Amino acid sequence: MNNLIDGKAIAEQIRQTIAADVSALKAQGTTPGLAVVLVGEDPASRVYVSMKEKACAQAGIFSDEHKLSESTSEAELLQLIDQLNQDSRIDGILVQLPLPKQIDESKVLEAISPKKDVDGFHPYNVGRLATGNPLFRPCTPYGVMKMLEHTGVDLKGKEVVVVGRSNIVGKPVALMCLAEHATVTICHSRTQDLPGHVARGDVVIAAVGQPEMIKGDWIKPGAVVIDVGVNRVGEKKLVGDVEFAAAKERAGAITPVPGGVGPMTITMLLYNTVESAKRRVAGK
Ligand code: NDP
């Protein structure tokens, strides 16, 4: 049964429209610019940052890289952000998390101009999303919404069960589903009868970070399953938060891991950057 939601293919389609938008902006004399700030040597962060730089280059977006040492002070980082806030070539500022211990993450995120906050983590943007008037939406949950849209899922009146309540995935994706008129349940580590909640979901969105903890036989037959989880098991294997093989037998549609939500995240970062550049051109 081919019920796989192909994140790579959807991401590629969106990247083509992004590339066309970038060409149109360039024809008007504007190149969208993304500043990527990496502090320290975290190997996973380095990989993410180089993937983001590569994706920018492919899309024709100017990427302004700032690689700072592990010992960078909070004041130095805040000064750089201030400079980027004022730099008219820059439409988006991304500070790769986590930051070294001496730096207060929330202070840094709040220093980014909300108009350049392409990650959507600034409290201003969180508030705009919560009040139903979003400016920037965080990339991973926005990617989930785009996947549902491309799969033809109409959320109106549907039961959506989100497992996970983090600020970067669970909470924002729940707000986005609510905005699409779904009836949303948010589950977390203290939820009682998780299988019972999941079984009610017409759409299940898993963002837990526990390998295959959502069992296939919890899934309502025909439900759409979006697995945000990325868990390394053993040396090389990656699995999601959903017991994929069993869930695939019951689901109407399901995302694989890898090749599901993963490719959407960077795509939506590019998307947000281009939207920001369009706003700059429009003088908004
Ligand atoms: P967090 O660790 O911040 O949040 C995990 C959430 O899951 C918490 O709300 C926690 O509950 C809940 N949880 C943990 N254990 C259980 C349990 N046994 N039953 C029910 N709920 C539970 O993770 P993130 O949201 O940052 O990420 C989630 C997953 O998504 C990870 O695997 C991460 O790697 C992946 N991810 C993938 C991205 C991509 O681009 N594909 C991007 C971002 C994340 P509580 O709040 O009570 O602690």
Number of DSSP helical runs: 10
- Please provide the count of β strands: 10
Unreliable spans are: none
Write out the distinct hetero groups bound to the structure.
Answer: NADPH dihydro-nicotinamide-adenine-dinucleotide phosphate
End-to-end separation = 47 Å
What name does CATH use for the topology of the largest domain? Rossmann fold
Q: Can you give the mean pLDDT?
A: 97
According to CATH, what is the class of the largest domain?
Alpha Beta
Structural class: alpha/beta
CATH architecture of the largest domain: 3-Layer(aba) Sandwich
- Taking all Cα atoms into account, the compactness measure Rg is 19 Å
Strand order of the largest sheet: 5-4-6-7-10
Let me know the largest β-sheet.
5 strands, parallel
Total of domains: 2
Name of the CATH homologous superfamily of the largest domain:
NAD(P)-binding Rossmann-like Domain
User: Can you write the helix and strand succession as a string?
Assistant: HEHEHEHHHEHEHEEEEHEH
Shape: globular
Question: Per DSSP, what share of the residues sits in E-state strands of 2 or more residues?
Answer: 15-25%
Portion in helices:
40-55%
Catalytic activity: (6R)-5,10-methenyltetrahydrofolate + H2O = (6R)-10-formyltetrahydrofolate + H(+); (6R)-5,10-methylene-5,6,7,8-tetrahydrofolate + NADP(+) = (6R)-5,10-methenyltetrahydrofolate + NADPH
Family: Belongs to the tetrahydrofolate dehydrogenase/cyclohydrolase family.
Subunit structure: Homodimer.
Pathway: One-carbon metabolism; tetrahydrofolate interconversion
